[in-house]
Automatic annotation (TrEMBL):
Protein's recorded name: Helix-turn-helix
Pfam families: HTH_3
GO molecular function, one term: DNA binding
Source organism (scientific name): Iodobacter fluviatilis
Residue ranges annotated for the HTH cro/C1-type domain, each copy included: 12-40
InterPro entries: Cro/C1-type_HTH (IPR001387), Lambda_DNA-bd_dom_sf (IPR010982)
């Protein structure tokens, strides 16, 4: 049985940047928090929120979103 105090101390070390969880640990944390693993690698809150919102879409919706984003990028580049 895992000691909850050890887990709390470990999470605190991750939060303070003293230790970095390995990928498998990040996958377990992401699963508990119901976010994609990539969420932890986002550089800002807005990008993380966009990623989190996109994660619940089905594949067809994700493809449509990708097309839409690419169209916005092309339009922005043409300005």
């Amino acid at each position: 049985m895992r000691n909850p105090n050890n887990a709390s101390a470990r999470m605190n070390q991750y939060e303070r940047g003293e230790h970095t969880p390995d990928f498998d640990t990040l996958k377990r944390i992401a699963n508990v928090l119901d976010v994609p693993v990539a969420y932890f690698y986002c550089e800002n809150e807005l990008t993380a929120s966009i990623l989190q919102a996109a994660e619940v879409l089905n594949e067809e919706q994700k493809l449509a979103l990708l097309v839409s984003i690419r169209e916005m990028v092309i339009t922005e580049k043409e300005k």
